[in-house]
UniProtKB/TrEMBL annotation, chain A:
Keywords for this protein: 4Fe-4S, Iron, Iron-sulfur, Lyase, Metal-binding, S-adenosyl-L-methionine
Domain of life: Bacteria
Protein name stated in the entry: Alpha-D-ribose 1-methylphosphonate 5-phosphate C-P lyase
Function field: Catalyzes the breakage of the C-P bond in alpha-D-ribose 1-methylphosphonate 5-phosphate (PRPn) forming alpha-D-ribose.
Stored InterPro entries: PhnJ
MF-aspect GO terms: 4 iron, 4 sulfur cluster binding; alpha-D-ribose 1-methylphosphonate 5-phosphate C-P-lyase activity; metal ion binding
Similarity field: Belongs to the PhnJ family.
Catalysis performed (reactions): alpha-D-ribose 1-methylphosphonate 5-phosphate + AH2 + S-adenosyl-L-methionine = alpha-D-ribose 1,2-cyclic phosphate 5-phosphate + methane + 5'-deoxyadenosine + L-methionine + A + H(+)
TrEMBL record, chain B:
Pfam family of the protein (one): PhnI
Record's protein name: Carbon-phosphorus lyase complex subunit PhnI
Record carries keyword Lyase: yes
InterPro entries noted in UniProt: PhnI
Gene Ontology biological process terms from the UniProt entry: organic phosphonate metabolic process
GO molecular function annotation: lyase activity
Record key words, sorted: Lyase
Length: 294, 362
């Protein structure tokens, strides 16, 4: 099979999807960029990986990739988690593009559950895998209703939910997939990133969100205003573990907690593995770095 | 010193090699051929074709072999392959009235023109394990008779002639295709039927069963069930007329349902419709029941709040490939989100403990 963008050694078209399908996805992407935060329905295809495992992100990446791109995939912030490996391999095989683990070298980064720590640039695209694109879904299960609520900008239900959290727990009890309002109009689910990442949603790169099973695409164009929902007396709090990274000493990154023995011993490490490795290469050390621990 | 787990890539490769070995099983036992699966596990093949939305017994058999007999996994393989196939055009609507029936029964009449034909069915067998099948050998030859020629009339049409059953609106509109357009609600009947015919057999069965047990009861009879081959014709633009390009086996079910009449319509019977690839009659009957339940609005019935009456509920959850993918994705690492939950729960507990201490001190 041949294609318009470049030859591949694979039996499938460049980046798996046929050109007509990619055009359909690109049209949805253009609409999404034109209406920030609005969920655009698209005719999601059945992909050779399961729904819920990144089919939306994969389709968006496939529609954006060109043979000159350098591709990076992270899951939980790490390049070597199993599903990130699987998706990276998929595009190595079907698109034959360069891949990298270095955030600054990538032109397209597909992610699940994290935004890289290093600031992204105008030359980069960040593609999110989204399980449930509808921020109102758990308040109202019906699509017919939630579409109406978005159309009427009727977001009272969401504020009531957040208020009830505070009344019950003293805090807003949402720690990831924390809802945001985009450019003062649409309430949007930023995908299940920890709320620590929410402030980074205002960035220089284009952010594209793909939900395959739910057949929705949405976007945040560069430098778009993104506000995490909160109250004046309960301002948004992008919290993280109260510790520095035990490998690179960073105190400004999102941390994974790793259990290291049966006695409840723990260590904290950067969830963004590339960022952590970069800092260690620059000589930063943490409590349990090999030299420090000796 | 703990070393963060690396090597996802090697683990994946090794897991897949092991999987291939397990798939083959004990190598002292002869390997199954795709042809054996196609011929001897044909009802599994039929289910994979129906829910995979691709009529190709050889590919379905291959998928079953590759999936180690896990039919949902096999359906997934077929669906993923199907997406890559170019869409050449649309066939003409098949005429099931011209079906060469292997099986054709009606529960609403003792006998019907064209006759009752039991065909190769499990019905009326006693479900006793047949240990004779453990030994290999040919089954006794079945009796044969002359094939019936000519059209087989539809049972529901006999009722329609007397105006006793509601007639269906005819339309030449090109039906929508959920594999090429995003689902939007309300979906309408053509899209509902497409979703049901490729929906999970177990789900559609349970939805249908729930209507029989009282959740949106509409009292169905099998007006007619027929299984057999029909010709598929396609209009070839270069020729200017339709030619036969092959044939497919279909199971078709029309139910006759009670209908007491409404404010606007006199009492008459109503229909539910099921049509599925292959010999898949459980699915075809289930589909007809669910179709009928979903027609409450169009027929002026009350919404009783039954799950099977809820179009969005039924259609959004009938696809087993969507369901299994999303269900199983919770196996993927979620430790970043879990970490943020952990922080939140700790914080709430800390605040509560501090508040309790303060109260005790006062």
């Amino acid at each position: 099979m041949t294609d318009q963008t470049g030859a591949t050694t694979s039996d499938y078209n460049f980046a798996y999807l046929d050109e007509q399908t990619k055009r359909m996805i690109r049209r949805a992407l253009l609409k999404a960029v034109a209406i920030p935060g609005y969920q655009v329905p698209f005719a999601s295809r059945e992909m050779p990986m399961p729904y819920g495992w990144g089919t939306g992100g994969v389709q968006v990446s496939a529609a954006c990739l060109t043979p000159d791109d350098t591709f990076k995939v992270i899951d939980q912030g790490a390049d070597d988690t199993t599903n990130a490996v699987s998706i990276r391999k998929f595009f190595e095989k079907t698109a034959d593009v360069e891949t990298t683990e270095h955030t600054q070298d990538a032109t397209i980064i597909q992610t699940r559950h994290r935004i890289p720590e290093a600031p992204l640039t105008e030359d980069q695209i960040l593609v999110y895998q989204v399980p449930i694109p509808e921020p109102l879904r758990f308040l109202e299960p019906r699509e017919t209703e939630t579409r109406k609520m978005h159309a009427l900008e009727e977001y009272g239900l969401m504020h009531v939910k957040l208020y009830e959290d505070i009344a019950r727990h003293g805090h807003i009890a949402t720690s990831y997939a924390y809802p945001v309002k985009v450019e003062g109009r649409y309430v949007m689910d930023p995908s299940p990133i920890p709320k620590f990442d929410n402030p980074k949603l205002e960035m220089a790169a284009i952010q594209l969100f793909g939900a395959g099973r739910e057949q929705r695409i949405y976007a945040i164009p560069p430098y778009t205003q993104v506000v995490s929902l909160d109250f004046e007396d309960h301002p948004f709090d992008p919290s993280k573990a109260d510790a520095p990274c035990d490998l690179c000493g960073a105190d400004h990154t999102y941390l994974d907690e790793v259990i290291i023995d049966d006695a409840g011993g723990r260590m904290f490490v950067c969830s963004d593995t590339d960022y952590c490795a970069g800092r260690q290469a620059q000589g930063h050390r943490g409590r349990l770095s090999p030299e420090a621990a000796e | 010193m703990y070393v963060a787990v690396k090597g996802g890539e090697r683990a994946i490769d090794n897991a897949h090699t092991w999987l291939a070995e397990e798939r083959r099983g004990d190598t002292s036992v002869a390997e199954l051929s795709v042809a054996q699966i196609r011929e001897q596990l044909s009802l599994a093949v039929n289910r994979v074709m129906a829910e995979g939305s691709l009529y190709d017994p050889d590919l379905a058999a291959l998928a079953i072999k590759q999936a180690r007999g896990d039919l949902i996994e096999a359906i997934f393989l077929i669906r993923a392959y199907r997406t890559t196939l170019p869409r050449l055009g649309h066939a003409e609507p098949v005429d099931t009235g011209k079906m060469a029936c292997d099986r054709r029964i009606s529960a609403t009449f003792k006998d019907v023109p064209g006759g009752q034909v039991l065909g190769p069915t499990f019905d009326y067998t006693h479900r006793l394990l047949d240990f004779a099948l453990e030994a290999e050998g040919l089954p006794p030859a079945a009796e044969t008779s002359e094939a019936q020629t000519g059209d087989t009339p539809r049972v529901t049409e006999f009722l329609n002639k007397g105006g006793l059953i509601q007639s269906e609106a005819r339309s030449d509109a090109t039906p929508p295709d959920m594999t090429h357009a995003p689902m939007q609600y309300p979906a309408g009947r053509p899209l509902r039927l497409q979703a049901l015919t490729r929906g999970d057999e177990g789900f559609v069965l349970s939805m249908a069963y729930s209507t029989q047990r009282g959740y949106g009861r509409n009292h169905p009879f099998v007006g007619e069930l027929r299984i057999g081959k029909v010709a598929v014709e396609m209009d070839i633009p270069e020729l200017g007329f339709a030619i036969e390009i092959g044939e497919v086996t279909l199971s078709e079910c029309e139910t006759v349902n009670q209908f007491a009449g409404s404010r606007t319509e006199p009492a008459q019977f109503t229909r539910g419709y099921g049509l599925v690839f292959g010999q898949t009659e459980r699915k075809a009957i289930s589909m007809a029941l669910v179709d009928r339940a979903l027609r409450w609005e169009e027929l002026g019935e009350d919404n009783l709040g039954a799950p099977a009456q809820d179009e969005e509920f039924v259609l959004a959850h009938s696809d087993n490939i969507q369901a299994t993918g999303f269900l199983e994705h919770i196996k993927l690492p979620h430790y970043v989100d879990f970490q943020s939950e952990l922080e939140l729960v700790r914080k709430i507990r800390r605040d509560a403990a501090e508040a309790a201490m303060q109260e005790a001190a006062e």
